[in-house]
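Per your request, structure below.
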């Protein structure tokens, strides 16, 4: 498949929000989307299955196949979405974009070019990301696309595409808070049919603790692949939300002056811009006013044995990241 070019001969700026889920990524993505120069598209890793196959709701509230933005992206990238072989796209994604492929992705970075399978997939997802950037520029004037896929393998893989200027926001949260959050039952309002997953998956704290260590240490190593990384603890963001947003914007190449002055008012955020996000936490829907307050319910609700076990498993890495 022939690739498409980024606009004006420049690489498309892509701010990739990375880290383990339940670390505050959706809230930060939602606030960054308020910048006139930024456009959030949610989790592109789930585009093929949750968007095209299952026709789940976009963050704007429309079904994927009825969302004007995503239909424009499909037209721009492929002529129309039906032009792609969806089973092949899904198979390719699971073949090259997963944790077990990190060694192969690192090898591609070191030799300076992707494997045939990696290139085949980048021709698909890269076209989507470029088309999203073009649609955003036409619709709102935004120059930076925000992708909240979070997956380490996706961040490293997308950075192999020379058409993309990938910069990674490495977002962390106290592992005990993350572990507790993954035990909670959270419904998925975007579910489109009885066959669609109705609630977000739940994981036991031990599994989450292991992933917290491996994922965060992995993101810390991305700089060795010459991928720009900006690290931010969710707790620090909540202590100084406006200052944190400004720092992220400067790192990502977002015009820092394009944030409306009323978005962050002390501990309250005012959200007015719909998100055309495919997949993600239900927070991406609605909510015009958000209280910026740390959820530390884990201190009381995560059972002591589990809390101690998570603390023990994550101890060395926690120290490295200031927890």
């Amino acid at each position: 498949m022939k690739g498409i070019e980024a606009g004006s001969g420049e690489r498309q700026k892509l701010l990739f929000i990375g880290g383990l889920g339940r670390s505050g990524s959706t809230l930060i993505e939602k606030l960054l989307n308020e910048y006139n120069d930024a456009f959030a598209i949610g989790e592109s890793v789930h585009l093929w299955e949750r968007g095209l196959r299952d026709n789940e709701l976009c963050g704007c509230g429309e079904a994927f196949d009825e969302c004007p933005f995503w239909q424009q992206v499909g037209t721009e990238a492929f002529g129309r979405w039906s032009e792609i072989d969806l089973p092949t796209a899904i198979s390719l994604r699971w073949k090259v974009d997963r944790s077990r492929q990190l060694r192969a992705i690192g090898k591609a970075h070191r030799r300076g070019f992707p494997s045939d399978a990696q290139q085949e997939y980048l021709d698909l997802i890269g076209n989507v990301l470029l088309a999203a950037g073009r649609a955003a520029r036409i619709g709102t004037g935004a120059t930076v696309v925000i992708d909240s896929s979070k997956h380490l393998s996706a961040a490293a893989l997308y950075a192999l595409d020379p058409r993309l200027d990938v910069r990674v926001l490495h977002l962390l949260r106290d592992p005990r808070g993350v572990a507790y959050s993954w035990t909670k039952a959270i419904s998925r309002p975007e579910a489109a049919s009885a066959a669609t997953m109705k609630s977000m998956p739940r994981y036991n704290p031990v599994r989450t603790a292991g992933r917290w260590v491996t994922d965060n240490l992995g993101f810390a190593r991305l700089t060795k692949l010459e991928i720009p990384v900006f690290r931010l603890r969710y707790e620090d963001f909540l202590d100084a939300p406006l200052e944190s947003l400004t720092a992220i914007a400067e790192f990502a190449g977002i015009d820092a002056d394009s944030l409306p002055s009323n978005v962050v008012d002390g501990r309250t955020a005012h959200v007015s811009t719909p998100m055309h996000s495919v997949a993600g936490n239900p927070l991406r829907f609605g909510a015009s006013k958000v209280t910026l307050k740390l959820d530390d319910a884990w201190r009381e609700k995560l059972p002591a044995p589990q809390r101690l076990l998570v603390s023990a498993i994550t101890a060395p890495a926690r120290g490295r990241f200031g927890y």
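Strands lie at 12-18, 38-40, 144-150, 164-172, 229-233, 264-265, 268-270, 289-291.

Regards,
D.
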